[in-house]
Amino acid sequence: MAQQRRRNTGTARRGPGKNPHQAARATPKNSSQASDPVVNEPRVGPRGIGSGLATEWPEDFRAGFTSFVGRPNAGKSTLTNALVGQKIAITSAKPQTTRHTIRGIVHREDAQLVLVDTPGLHRPRTLLGQRLNDLVAETLSEVDAIGFCIPANEKIGPGDRFIATQLGQLQRKPMVAIVTKADLVDRSTLARQLVAVSELGVETLGEEGWAAVVPVSATGDFQVDAVADVLAQAMPLSPPLYPDGELTDEPEAVLIAELIREAALEGVRDELPHSLAVVVEEIIPRENRPADSPMLDIHVNLFVERPSQKAIIIGRAGSRLREVGTRARQGIEALMGTRVYLDLHVKIAKEWQRDPKQLGRLGF
Predict the structure, then answer these.
(1) Taking burial as the number of CB atoms within 10 A of a residue's CB, which of 102, 183, 212, 364 is the most buried?
(2) Which residues bind GTP (predicted)?
(3) CA pair distance 136, 139, nearest whole angstrom
(4) How far apart (Å, rounded) are the C-alpha atoms in residues 263 and 255?
(5) Which residues are annotated as a binding site for GTP?
(6) pTM of this prediction?
(7) Which residues are annotated as a binding site?
(8) What's the domain count of the chain?
C-alpha cells in the first residue's frame, strides 16, 4: 500500500468512493425493445462518478462488482490482469503478494465488470494478516458476485474448504467457481478437479452449489472470455459505472508502489515478502526539461523489519537495489507515459506488521 505525502501529481482514477461498491446505480427506463438505447442524465456520485460516463446504454446492459477470492497464490491477480487486458495487479509466486483491493474494469458491449482483486484469505499470524482478512470479508459482503479461484494443479485442501464455508455464510449471491492454471495439468486431471470443485460447492453452499464452474488459463488465454461471460450474466441491470476506456481507479502512487514491490520480491526468501512495504513519498515533475522530453522524479521508501532484510534488498554495494529500480522503471514509465527517475531508499520499521501505529503510517 502506498501513500503520497507531499506533492500529489498522480491523481486517483475515477471510482465510486472510499467504499468501492457504493456507486449509485440508475435503473434503466422502460423501453418497447430491449435493444433500444436508454437516454438518461449522467449520474453524479461519490468522488465524481458520472463524469465522462455514457448517457446512452441498452436497456439490458449490466454492470456491477465482482470479487475474486481464494487462498494465496491461486491466480487471482493474473486472472484480473487477463480480463482487463492490462497489468493492474502485481503477480508473484510468493504468498500474500496482493495487500489491498485492486479494481480493474472490463468493458463489453453488453456489460461492464468491475473486478475487485483481494488479498488471499489465510490464517493470520500478525495484525497485518488480520487486517487483510477483514478487508476481504468486507469486500465480499458488498460485491454483486464472487469468483472463487481454485488452482487446477493443487488438490482441494483445508484452506479451500475454509473459504468455501465462509462463502456459504454470506447472504445469497451468485458464486462462480473458477479453476485456474488449467494449462498446468492434463485433461483427465482437470476433469477430476472440476468434479471435486463441484462437490465442494454442494457440500458448503447447499444442493444448488456454484452458479457455474469454469476452467481457465489466464496465461494461456484459455476460457478467459468464458469467465467474463459468466460473470457478466451475474451482474445486475445497470448503466455503466465508469467511463469507456478507464481500466482502473487505483491512484498512480499505489500502482507505482506495487510495481516496485513486485520487482523487489523477485528471487528473495519466503519471509521477506511479508516484511516489505513500499511507500511513494513524492512524484515531482523535473524542472527545466524540454517540453517534448518531460521526466518525473519519484521518491520512494522501502520498509523492512530487520537489518538482515535491508541487506538483502540493497545487495552487495547496492547492486540488487539498482536491479529493482531497473525492473520497476519499465512498468512505471509505461504507466506514466514518460521517463522517470526512481530515488529508492531502504529503511527499517521494526515489527511494523504487528504495530498498529506503523501499520497506519504505512497505509494499512
Answers:
(1) 102
(2) 70-77, 117-121, 180-183
(3) 5
(4) 13
(5) 70-77, 117-121, 180-183
(6) 0.65
(7) 70-77, 117-121, 180-183
(8) 2
